[in-house]
Amino acid sequence: MASAELAERYLTADELERRMVDAALRCVERWGLAKTSMDDIAREARVSRATVYRVIPGGKDRLVETVLQHEVGRLFHEADSEARQATTLEDLVCVGVGIAMRVLTGHAALNYLVRHEPEAILPHFAFHRLAPLLAEIAELSRPHLSRFLPDEAVRPAGELLARVVLSYSFSPVPELDPEDPDSIRRFVRTYLLPALTTTEERT
Amino acid sequence: MTTAATGPSGSEPPVPPPEAEATRERILGSAYLRLADEGLTQATVEGIAHEAGLSRATIYRHFPGGKDELIEAVISWEVGRFFTRLGEATDDAPDFTTWLSGGMLAARRQLDEHTVLQQLLEDEADQLVPRLVTVMPIILGVLREQLAQRLADERLRPGVELQEAAELLARLMVSFIGTPGAWHLDDPEQVDKLVRTQLLAGILPDP
């Protein structure tokens, strides 16, 4: 296991996790979640079995949660510089919704599971198990949204955007096409901006 | 969904429709009880037949797909009952906003108090949720149609398309009712605020 030792010695904790998540995603894309073992992930990532369990402590039961969390973090990391350049709330939301929808609809492992192993993935996106994901997305959007929104509006705004992105990525409509920036801008301007900025109770 | 007239073989005489409908209801009621009691994995056609006081053959005549078809039918049946109760709770709302708030409140309360659903979500979410996702287009369709009908009587903000707005509202309602997130949907004031801000601010003009 020379390569495993090498990896474990020279990679930071973040790099190791990244490596393992990537390995897990490749395994799932290839033969699905049910047939993927923690050993497969160790082999694919070229690290030892012990390291896999150190990085993903819950083992296979916690694999989807760990990977989801990691992928959400990566999405925000990728969107970060473009989001920072936005000078208006409208631009920020268009950038965020566009990137998020493209990542979700183009995510090979996610699409594989929704199609072939819905029982493994869909419960994470519904009812009480969706709540932590919404909270995490709201937290990660906080620094961006708080540039344009008053404090009390930030968390609900992040959650609302997460709901819209998830819903329209899982079942798309032509009026909100992730590949068509004009359709995104129209949808954001018409429906989302007023919903995000209205915090006063209207009578 | 299979009707009695298209039974599995020609040897069985077709059951007259009203009677078939009554038997079907009886099977669904019994299936619901067994599924509630034993869960989706453990419940059997045998047990459901026993509960209904019918033979397994009769169950298969009505539901040739067996347990899978029964589970799907029970979910559709229970979703239908859910909407009927919801309709009764909101029928007398004086205006669109009140109707929407009342609907959200009643729907969330129904889900909270639905002990069978809560138990299944606890024990067998992996079995239940994908099946709920399968009926989701029907749920969204029903909601969208009702919303579009009501929205047709409202003045909409410039640029808002009726069908698009009904679609967005239906999706958001399902999302909030299933997962309230940061909102307390058992509090009428919060529901009212949610409806007036996040749900309707992009659709109806400022009053």
**Of all protein chain pairs, which has the greatest interface, and how many residues does each chain bring to it?**
A-B, 42 and 38 residues
Helix count of chain B, per DSSP?
8
Main sheet of chain A, how many strands, which sense, barrel?
A: none
Rg from Cα of chain A: 19 Å
CATH architecture of the largest domain in chain A: Orthogonal Bundle
Overall strand count of chain B: 0
What percentage of residues of chain B falls in helices of 4 or more residues? over 70%
What structural category do the secondary elements of chain B indicate? Answer: mainly alpha
Strand content bin of chain B: under 5%
Would you write up a description of this structure?
The complex is a heterodimer of chains A (about 200) and B (about 210). Chain A has about 200 residues and is mostly helical. Chain A folds into two domains: about 1-55, Arc Repressor Mutant, subunit A; about 65-195, Tetracycline Repressor, domain 2 (Orthogonal Bundle). Chain A is built from eleven helices and no strands. Chain A has helices at about 1-10, 15-30, 40-45, 50-55, 65-85, 90-105, 110-115, 120, 125-145, 150-170, 180-195. In chain A, helix 2 (about 15-30) crosses helix 7 and helix 10 (about 150-170) packs antiparallel against helix 11 (about 180-195). The termini of chain A are far apart. The model of chain A has no long low-confidence stretch (mean pLDDT about 90). Chain B folds into two domains: about 5-65, Arc Repressor Mutant, subunit A (Orthogonal Bundle); about 90-200, no CATH class. Chain B is about 70% helix and about 0% strand. Chain B is built from eight helices and no strands.
Protein traits:
heterodimer, A: about 200 residues, mainly alpha, Arc Repressor Mutant, subunit A, Tetracycline Repressor, domain 2, 2 domains, about 0% strand, B: about 210 residues, 8 helices, elongated, disordered N terminus
